[in-house]
Here is the input.
Amino acid sequence: MDTDLVTRAQRGDEEAFASLAVAVGDRLHAVAHRILRDIDLAEDATQQALLAIWQDLPQLRDPARFDAWSYRLLVRACYAEGRKSRQWSPNMRLLPSDEPMQADGSDSIVDRDQLERGFRRLSIDHRAVVVLHHYLDWPLDRIAETLGVPAGTVRSRLHHAMRGLRAALDADARPPAREVAQ
Amino acid sequence: MSSDRDTTRIVRSWLLDGPTELPDRVLDAVLDQLPSTHQGRATWWPARRLSHMNTPMRFALGAVAIVIAVVLGINLLGSNIGGPSPTPTPAPSGASEEPVVRAWIDAVNERDQEAATAVMSDRVVVSDTTLEREEAARTILETWCPMDVLSVQRVGDSYIVEAAFVEDDLGTCTAGVPGTTGMFVVEVVDGKVSRLP
Here is the structure.
């Protein structure tokens, strides 16, 4: 991230902040959507996070840490959106009925549906760790630093979350979708 | 039955599916709000470091801190006002909850949410807002700078903590300015932290 842009935005330069927002908006939104699993909530969380970044920028002492800091504010915004919407929307979408399956059948539509359900049962804390680790490929110590929690807590959350997701996948005792169709 | 490796592969593949671009209207909405959204400054601790202040300013700040501590003590004592001395009265009776306060501060320093919530009431007043314990702990752990405790003084159910703040790992804590000292009041009820600044 261009630290000069961050510094200028810290001083109230709206043009610099606009450039920053363009630079980080897509990835913040992508992460928010993967945590919240809802397009409207993700847009709201991203909007709130960007505004929080603008408001709190003067308090960021080291502009070089802007990236990690922005994710911390995003996850906080996701907590807020998650709390606001206790009633999760179904977020239905059509899946292609002839989607090709993996040779071992493990990455099927059924798997994805089970994963979706399993993931939605996780708390935002656990989802955030899964997304930062498995989507952004971050190591656990970086996640701990970003979220402001001990590394042991991150490890424990990831373990618990992955165990839950694995259980969700294994819980599907139905035969593969194609067999049902036939 | 899925192996751990299968689960990881499926989860990673599944996470790739989804939007990767922020709609322009969201970005526009943010930028439209900038002119009416004020940027904050460092929060409720003095933003100037003591080492940058001249001697009279340091004495003045010290005097103000003492006055604040005395006023807080008088307010917290309530009916005890009118006694012979305006200084905080020693704890009247009952076991000191100072270990609870110190355990809570240790948890804040360690960024250990579990340990922090273990010594907090179900509902905690933070900056005059009542929060659920987990939310209060999360808020505190995300914002407070780690600190070295210089003293803890009991006043009724409350404890006045004097602490020297230090930088957190990320350098983004906003409550407390690293390199400065400050005082704050922690209220403890039934062995649990119930009110924070």
Observations:
- Chain A touches chain B through 57 residues (CB under 8 Å).
- Chain A has nine helices and no strands.
- Confidence is low (pLDDT under 50) at residues 87-106, 176-182 of chain A.
